[in-house]
Amino acid sequence: MTTSSLANLVTDVAIVLASLAIFFAIGQVFVAKKLLQNYSLTNLDARTAARVVELTFSLVFSLSCGLFELVILEIGDALDRDLRWYCWKGFIGLMILLVVCVTPYLQAYLICRNWGGE
Predict the structure, then answer these.
(1) 78 Rama class: left (phi>0) / alpha (psi -120 to 50) / beta
(2) 98-115 as b/e, with b when 16 or more CB fall inside 10 Å?
(3) Could you write out the DSSP letters of every residue in 69-106?
(4) Which domain holds residue 17?
(5) Residue 30 maps to a domain
(6) Mind listing the pLDDT tens digit for each residue in 36-58?
(7) pTM of the full predicted structure?
């Protein structure tokens, strides 16, 4: 691997990570401003649960936007081909983990925790 190709790979990885960070921040702002704006959480457990939900939503949103970005990058043949392939595999694997395992577990946990009422 030459120095210029290594520099290009580092630049491409930085672009992907920066876009994921931007998408994650957008998800955080959306949850805070639109979804949780009318909730005043005084209980520490409720605040912690809301934070976990916020982080999970933001991560799923970030990965979803990242997949859409990868579609655009595939069409435009931008970034390194191997990097795009690894990103596809990683993003889809994480999405499956989050959507199939983590989100249902969190829902079941929150339902069971709040079962007794407040």
Answers:
(1) beta
(2) beeeeeeeeeeeeeeeee
(3) HHHHHHHHT-S-HHHHHHHHHHHHHHHHIIIIIIHHHH
(4) 3-113
(5) yes
(6) 776 666 676 777 877 888 899 99
(7) 0.84
